UniProtKB/TrEMBL annotation:
Classification via NCBIfam families: PRK15047.1
Coiled-coil features, chain-numbered ranges: none
Pfam families per the UniProt record, alphabetical: Acetyltransf_2
InterPro entries in UniProt: Arylamine_N-AcTrfase, Papain-like_cys_pep_sf
Transmembrane portions of the chain: none
Protein name: N-hydroxyarylamine O-acetyltransferase
UniProt family annotation: Belongs to the arylamine N-acetyltransferase family.
């Protein structure tokens, strides 16, 4: 077992080296979602989002932070490779908000081939992300611990959809073209710096729970969901309450010398943000 894989598994409370199987892929996928929160704080602080292996390990594992798709799926890809899976990253176009024009490729996801069968894995799409791999098959409803999904095919493109209140909503479209680090760096830079990027205008966070629930945060609005029902909703009164819930409910590390942040720094980020929930990836 590599030192990185040992640290990754330890972060999730796993002691033994898993085998290469669909059961292992499902287990690691869910455990990752439940351990590493989706969050965009570094975009807001602002700090550059670094995608090299050491930076991802230092931030998400050592500093106990989270991240967004380029970080989450970058870390997950490395872990799966270290276990022995055949895996590579793809890039998708986010169409969740029904954009009037085709958007750029700003979402990183994974293609895993197991016993000759292709699977899609994705631990980085916020509150609607997959929490289990799904087969690369068109028009077949597939269940995960946190919802139902399906893929549709249009030519060489695949479209991932999730079922929301018994209606299908498209999330993103992708193809199987080989991507390179430069492609991820370009999409990452756009996501973090494009003036209209929602990552620049809202604090977004999600952590999935093993029982099928999830915790979400949009600015000061916190919700504990169980499937599609809100069990708990809070509008946090101030930055100290926000700083507290980031640590206690989302398990976010704040003390690391490089990737931590103070309550004062968080207050500067949140200045001017309203307390109304906003939709987001």
């Amino acid at each position: 077992m590599t030192p990185f894989l040992r640290a990754y598994l330890s972060r999730m409370g796993i002691e033994q080296l898993p085998d290469i199987s669909i059961a292992t892929l499902r287990m690691l996928h869910l455990q990752h979602n439940c351990t590493f929160p989706f969050e965009n704080l570094d975009v807001l602080l602002p700090r550059e989002i670094l995608l090299d292996e050491q930076s991802l390990q230092d931030k998400l594992i050592t500093a106990r932070r989270g991240g967004y798709c380029f970080e989450q799926n970058g870390l997950f890809e490395r872990a799966l490779k270290d276990v022995g899976f055949d895996v590579r990253s793809l890039l998708g176009r986010v169409i969740l908000a029904n954009p009037p024009q085709m958007p750029p490729r700003t979402h990183r996801l994974l293609l895993v081939t197991l016993n000759g069968e292709p699977w899609i894995a994705d631990v980085g799409f916020g509150s609607q992300t997959l929490t289990a791999p799904i087969r690369l098959l068109a028009d077949e409803e597939q269940s995960t611990p946190h919802g139902r999904y399906r893929l549709q095919q249009e030519g060489n493109d695949w479209i991932l959809q999730f079922c929301h209140h018994e209606r299908w909503q498209s999330m993103y479209r992708f193809d199987l073209t080989k991507q390179y680090l430069a492609d991820f760096m370009m999409g990452n830079f756009w996501s973090a710096h494009w003036p209209q990027s929602h990552f620049l205008h809202h604090l977004l966070m999600c952590r999935h729970l093993p029982d099928g629930g999830k915790l979400t945060l949009t600015n000061f609005h916190f919700t504990h969901w169980q499937h599609e029902h809100a069990l708990e909703q809070l509008t946090l009164a101030d930055v100290p309450a926000l700083y507290d819930i980031l640590q206690k409910r989302f398990g976010l590390g704040v003390t690391d010398h490089r990737y931590g942040f103070s309550q004062h720094a968080l207050a500067a980020v949140m200045a001017g943000f309203d307390t109304h929930p906003q939709a987001g990836k």
